[in-house]
Amino acid sequence: MLLARTILPWTCEWLLHYELWLITGRWAGSGEDHTVSPADEDAESER
């Protein structure tokens, strides 16, 4: 299998979901729920 038909499309899709998660705090892809908890937001704001 060529990388262009396997790894690259998967990586592009994952990066899209990751960028959306950073903006919204809600994981739109499949798998585990990666919502940002209030404690995580507080820890991030202290940095």
TrEMBL record:
<feature type="domain" description="Type II CBASS E2 protein">
    <location>
        <begin position="1"/>
        <end position="34"/>
    </location>
</feature>
<dbReference type="InterPro" id="IPR058588">
    <property type="entry name" value="E2-CBASS"/>
</dbReference>
<dbReference type="Pfam" id="PF26395">
    <property type="entry name" value="E2-CBASS"/>
</dbReference>
<protein>
    <recommendedName>
        <fullName>Type II CBASS E2 protein domain-containing protein</fullName>
    </recommendedName>
</protein>
